[in-house]
């Protein structure tokens, strides 16, 4: 009985001590990272009266756009949230003031109900004015703000007929706000004024412009842009202005950058790399206008005095909308970084990065602004080259090639003698 009372007293004491001490601290395993935001894209479609024109594969512009939207919705990545906004789709009157307010979101940004989205697009009929600036501003509001970049894909066949607000000014305004918004533009009419305006909108936000002259081109390009959002939405590239030489080139830290490069030119940048570190860089140039086939892009790392360290190159035939190249370099690959003496800091080497291209415009294509360039820069601890049997260098490679050549010659000789002997017998 006494033991029971003692046990009860001990238990009550432990409970009281626990209560006074409060809840136990949360361990590191109990903390959860906030869920990453999904990529968000809004398609903005011009449904103004000019979309009735039947000049794309013998079909109306609106029917081609509707088909493209259906195929894009069907192929939409599961993790991507999509919205659709239209402009010039409802007002049939001639009051410009009222017609220039005509923009509506027909599919809210979020997980897509494919049947509902395609049904909403199927009912569209070309109607009114072209308030592009207002539609862009509204689309930015639809996408909201957050930690990730948003993407607007504008499809139109004409320039804004309702300014103000001017669409270029709206694009600059959105970029200046730091809204992490990229606007890509697609033109359905080969018109110089439309091209200039769409280039201006895209350039202000780090986006791309493409002229779509067939149903296949339009569908393929929208799919590429929507699909690209899931890979690039986590960071908005920093706008940077490369120079014509390394001496005064901008100094880049690890990150993603965007620039413009004119046809057949070079753009220079500088990257600090400490001993024992490795530079990893890649460049992509978007073909946002017609160019001649057989082109290429070259990415080089050089010293300040112009000595080439390493290069990466890629070539294209005009069948893709992006061409890329990459490189890796370290001053002592695989060696650990030297330990500085106390109170001193090892100064980094300045590596010059130069982006070159061999693009040539097709007849009638404007050269300015330059092609959109996306440059990714990374600096990490140098890693040793993968271990291998050593076939790539030295006497062993020579011996292997010699033996292979002798065996190939022996087999070829035996086969030739057999064939000649057989031919003579017959």
TrEMBL record:
Annotated signal sequence is: 1-21
Keywords associated with the record: Membrane, Signal, Transmembrane, Transmembrane helix
Instruction: List each copy of the VWFA domain by range.
Output: 40-229
Q: InterPro entries this protein is in?
A: CLCR, VWF_A, vWFA_dom_sf
Q: Give the matching SMART domains.
A: VWA
Q: Which PROSITE patterns match?
A: VWFA
Q: Which residues cross the membrane?
A: 395-420
Q: What is this protein called?
A: Ca-activated chloride channel family protein
């Amino acid at each position: 009985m006494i033991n029971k009372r003692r046990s009860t007293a001990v238990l009550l004491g432990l409970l009281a001590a626990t209560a006074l001490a409060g809840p136990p601290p949360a361990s590191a395993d109990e903390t959860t990272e906030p869920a990453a935001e999904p990529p968000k894209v809004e398609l903005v479609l011009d449904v103004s009266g000019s979309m009735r024109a039947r000049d794309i594969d013998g079909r109306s512009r609106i029917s081609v756009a509707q088909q493209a939207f259906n195929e894009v919705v069907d192929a939409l990545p599961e993790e991507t949230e999509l919205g659709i906004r239209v402009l010039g789709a409802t007002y049939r009157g001639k009051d410009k003031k009222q017609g220039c307010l005509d923009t509506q979101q027909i599919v809210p940004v979020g997980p897509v109900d494919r049947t509902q989205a395609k049904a909403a697009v199927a009912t569209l009929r070309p109607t009114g004015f072209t308030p592009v600036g207002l539609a862009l501003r509204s689309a930015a509001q639809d996408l909201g703000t957050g930690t990730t970049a948003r993407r607007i894909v504008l499809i139109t066949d004409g320039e804004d007929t309702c300014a103000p607000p001017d669409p270029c000014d709206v694009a600059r305004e959105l970029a200046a706000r730091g809204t992490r918004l990229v606007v890509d533009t697609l033109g359905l009419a080969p018109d110089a004024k439309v091209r200039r305006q769409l280039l201006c909108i895209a350039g202000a936000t780090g986006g791309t412009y493409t002229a779509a002259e067939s149903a296949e081109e339009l569908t393929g390009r929208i799919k590429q842009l929507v699909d690209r959002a899931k890979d690039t939405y986590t960071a908005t590239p920093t706008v940077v202005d490369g120079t014509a030489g390394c001496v005064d080139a901008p100094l880049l830290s690890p990150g993603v950058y965007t620039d413009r490069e004119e046809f057949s030119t070079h753009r220079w940048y500088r990257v600090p790399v400490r001993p024992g570190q490795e530079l990893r860089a890649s460049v992509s140039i978007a073909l946002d206008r017609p160019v001649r086939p057989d082109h290429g892009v070259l990415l080089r790392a050089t010293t300040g005095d112009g000595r080439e360290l390493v290069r990466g190159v890629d070539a294209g035939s005009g069948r893709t909308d992006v061409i890329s190249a990459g490189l890796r370099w370290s001053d002592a690959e695989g060696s650990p970084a030297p330990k500085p003496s106390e109170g001193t800091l090892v100064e980094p080497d300045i590596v010059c990065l130069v982006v070159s291209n061999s693009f040539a415009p097709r007849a009638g294509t404007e050269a300015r602004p330059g092609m959109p360039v996306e440059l990714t820069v990374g600096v990490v601890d140098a890693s040793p080259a993968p271990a291998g049997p050593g076939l790539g260098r030295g006497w062993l490679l020579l011996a292997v090639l010699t033996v292979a050549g002798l065996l190939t010659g022996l087999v070829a000789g035996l086969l030739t003698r057999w064939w000649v002997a057989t031919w003579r017998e017959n």
